[in-house]
Amino acid sequence: MTTIPPLRREILVAADPGTAFEVFTARIGQWWPVATHSVHGAGGTVALTAGQIVERSASGASSVWGTVTRWEPPSAVAFTWHPGRDASSAGRVTVTFAAAGDQTLVTLEHAGWEVYADPAAARAEYDEGWGEVLGGYRDHIVTSPPVSSPSPSDPGRW
Question: Which end of the chain is more exposed for a tag (fewer CB within 10 A), N or C?
Fold first, then answer.
């Protein structure tokens, strides 16, 4: 059996790590491209709520995309990843935020390709998709006002 290596994407964003973390997590619904990268399509929303990433369609249908497995603001968040699939066939995504001068290096690693019917094809598709998603995140963060990082003890978040 061939092991497919994790997919790794890095981008620099014009924000400190706390702001970059906050926008990625608490504001995911403002920048995620739901129209092109979702289960239910345009008109819906996505949010991190009660430890899960959840998409809600315009008609009220919901889909859990993943469950948070690591929460370390402002340096890291990790979650299972299975949009449109059963949680038993989830991949794993880790996103880290590291100061890089007056910017933040955001690194996304997506692993666990063996759960897909065609692991190589899934990795190739996500390689393109994560590039588009992270590009939208980077563009959004430029226009986002500074905010404070959420507290890990805030029960409303996780």
Answer: N
State the total domains in the chain: 1
Radius of gyration over alpha carbons of the chain, in Å?
15
Write down the pTM of the prediction: 0.90
Note the pLDDT of residue 146.
57
Q: What mean pLDDT, rounded, does the chain reach?
A: 90
Residue 32 φ/ψ, nearest 5 degrees: -65, 135
Beta carbons of 57 and 34 less than 8 angstroms apart: no
Residue 27, CA distances (Å) to 57, 90, 112, 143, 146 in order: 17, 23, 26, 12, 12
Asked whether residue 157 is domain-assigned, the answer is: no
Residue 123 lies in a domain: yes
